[in-house]
Amino acid sequence: MGRKCPFLHLGHSSVSPDIKLTYATFLLYWTNFLAHFVKLEYRNVSKFTYAERTLVMTLVATLSIKRIPDLEIIKEIERQTNKTVTTRYLYQVKQQIKKDSKKWYETLREGEYEYIHEFRERINEIIDLQRRHYKIIEDNQNNPSIQQTSLAELHRLNITLSNYFDVAPTIVTIPVKQNDNSISMAQQDKEIII
């Protein structure tokens, strides 16, 4: 007793409608179907410029953190780039973000001084922003609303900087020789506090 081939609608007219499906023929038809489906799926994906790829990665990272469903992320990408993407492409972008993040983290973890340099750069940025706000306050003596806004931001920057300085001793572990024993600055700080 023969069965109708379920894949005839894909253009496999050379196959008789009354065939007996064995496991091997089913696998053959299934792989042809998947190949056809993948070709259709990739046809809809437009090429992105470097700026668009960066935008897509930023959108995917930001919206994924907010637990936005994949279909809504795809709609947002289409809205901002005017190009269609598939769920498969979205998955590839998420995997690339994970890979890049892991590589960045491992680089910072393995290179202690690079991490300290990055930490120091953030502190220098905050100090630079503080200088700018002090200048804004000085330049706007006759405008109290601008001064008040700048003072509020200056207060937030002071808190952030204070938090950074609180964390700094746990990050920096510079070996110091004391009585022929090598101990870190963080360990010395803990001993002084205790």
Please list the strands of the largest sheet in the order they lie side by side.
Answer: 1-2
Whole-number count of domains: 3
What value does the Rg take, in angstroms? 30 Å
In total, the number of strands is 2
Helix content: over 70%
User: What's the end-to-end separation, in Å?
Assistant: 86 Å
Q: Helix/strand/pairing class, anyone?
A: mainly alpha
Task: Give the quaternary arrangement of the chains.
Answer: single chain
Residue stretches low in confidence (pLDDT < 50, at least 5 long) are 7-13, 39-45
Overall pLDDT, averaged? Answer: 76
Strand content: under 5%
Overall 3D shape: elongated
The helix-strand sequence is: HHHHHHEEH
Biggest sheet architecture: 2 strands, antiparallel
Number of H/I helices: 7
Describe it for me?
The protein is mainly alpha-helical and 194 residues long. The chain folds into three domains: 36 residues; 58 residues; 64 residues. Helices cover 71% and strands 4% of the residues. It has a two-stranded antiparallel sheet with strand order 1-2. A hairpin with a 2-residue loop joins strand 1 and strand 2. Helix 2 crosses helix 4, helix 4 crosses helix 5 and helix 5 runs antiparallel to helix 6. The longest helix is centred in the middle third of the chain and has 28 residues. The chain starts with 22 loop residues before the first helix and ends with a helix. About 7% of the residues have low confidence.
